[in-house]
Amino acid sequence: MLTAPTALLPLDAAPMLALLDLRSGDPLDAGLVVDRGSPHPEGGLLLSFAVPPGRHTVGLQLRPRDDAQPAWRRTRHLDLVTHIPADLDAAAVLAALAPLVARLDALDGPSTRVTVPPPAGERPPPALRVDVPAERRDEAPSLYDFGRVHVLDLASDCQQACRFCSARTRFSPVARFDEAAFRAIVASLERARADGYDVLRLSGLDPLTHPRVTDCVAEATRLGFDHVHIYSPSTRYDDPAFLDALIRALGPTGFTLHVPLYGGDGATHDRVSGTPGSFQRVLAGLGLLAERGLLSHVLFVTVVTADNAPALPALRRLTASYGRPVHVFLPFPATPDPRDRFFEVALRQSELVAPMLACEPPLGLSALLPCVRWAHERRTGQPAWSRGGVRTVAALDGNLFELGTYRRMDDGPQGGTFRIPVRRCPHASACALAELCPRAVYEAYAERFGTGELVPVDAAELSGWSG
Ligand code: SF4
């Protein structure tokens, strides 16, 4: 089919799919099936293609042309960047995408203009350091307090299907890791050390299922990283041989194991993780860590969603039995996609106060906006503000890579481009608790629930409150 150049090439899902004559479900060669278009979390438009029956997604990112950046192909005004899981036949995938490139090439004439939709939402306000008295400090350390952190995302499969997680729309599990990939990881660790990073964060889908993870950790130890944070579903600590190899690789390096628990019982945890048996595996791993005297390295994490909020008290009792703190996350959107899981699982902050207060001691109040806590206490007399932790850095967890001193392996010299747009609080200048507050909600939260919960706190009322 002959295609004439078009005046506008919008980096917007619906018009671009129409221009390319693509519909969800259309088959392409190499087993690809058109899935959707969505804003790419790091800029431009992402066209996604499913590869059934597995869990792979192939991505084709379209962004305004910049010859200084690497790209698979370029048209007159666009860069085309592919995201292909390493265990697919890349040549076949590229061949299947070639007709789309030809179509884009034909559409992109000398006077074609690429239009980029305005980003939804604003940049987050700066993170604020808060002087919190020891007795009010949140039980978990702030993620913003881990120093300069080099982030290594290992895209080996987690084998889970957590209800709140949209990570797979950003990257697919990879099953084949060759020596070149390992050398690239080691080179990134060396660069990070040379640039003064002394803390390493291992995350991804599940870094612990990566076949070279202990080698990566051993390299980090050899290079003198001070501390390694491991974010993982934590099911693999149930394997004694693996656990011992990991601990050997860590050697003298400090480490924190961020262990997710989504409920105090298997039914709740496994419902959130989407994976029968995952709770028992985490508990088995905790048992092995306890036997080896390593529980002091555990920091529990949880995500409070519509699925597990009522079960928070049971989670509190379970984590307390290990004597370890819990970092409570509220769900946040991992993508700007309207189908992000955030919209299915998030609850209003004001709905979370009661289950958090039902825990003894209260759990998770530090993750809520101060005005939400205060409004609950003022209305009910229950100590949603007077009790419960306060974080030492006021900022939203989802904005960590924008506001914290974190750098990911693939970030360019200008730093990270990953953004979660927010809506800033319009009342911050009039609010007595603004200095303890992120002063924003995620744009997705504002879209879903509005901003009616953001009510400025009156200084006189606050100082006169006996709690
Ligand atoms: S600054 Fe805004 S969001 Fe923060 S506590 Fe005050 S009213 Fe709430």
CATH arch. level architecture of the largest domain: Alpha-Beta Barrel
Query: What's the mean pLDDT score?
Result: 91
Q: Within the CATH hierarchy, at the fold level, what is the topology of the largest domain? A: TIM Barrel
Characterize the quaternary organization of these chains: single chain
Structural class: alpha/beta
Beta strands, count:
18
Amino- and carboxy-terminal Cα gap: 73 Å
The major pleated sheet works out as: 7 strands, parallel
What is the share of helical residues? 25-40%
What is the CATH top level name of the largest domain? Alpha Beta
Hetero groups in this structure are: iron/sulfur cluster
Range of strand content = 15-25%
Estimated radius of gyration: 23 Å
The tally of structural domains comes to 2
Count the DSSP helices.
14
Going across the major beta sheet, what is the strand order?
14-13-12-11-10-9-16
How would you describe the shape? globular
Low-confidence stretches: none
Task: Write up this protein.
Strands 14-13-12-11-10-9-16 form a seven-stranded parallel sheet. The chain has a five-stranded antiparallel sheet with strand order 2-3-4-6-5, with helices on one face. The longest helix is centred in the first third of the chain and has 18 residues, at 90-107. It folds into two domains: 8-115, no CATH class; 140-420, TIM Barrel (Alpha-Beta Barrel), CATH 3.20.20. It is globular. It has helices at 13-19, 90-107, 179-194, 213-223, 240-250, 266-273, 278-291, 312-322, 342-345, 349-357, 370-380, 400-403, 443-449, 459-463, and strands at 8-10, 33-39, 45-51, 56-64, 73-74, 78-83, 113-115, 128-129, 149-154, 199-204, 227-231, 254-260, 298-303, 326-329, 393-394, 406-408, 422-424, 440-442. The chain has 467 residues and is α/β, with parallel strands linked by helices. The chain starts with 7 loop residues before the first strand and ends with a helix. The chain contains 14 helices and 18 strands. Helix 3 runs parallel beside helix 4 and helix 4 (213-223) runs parallel beside helix 5 (240-250). The protein binds iron/sulfur cluster (SF4).
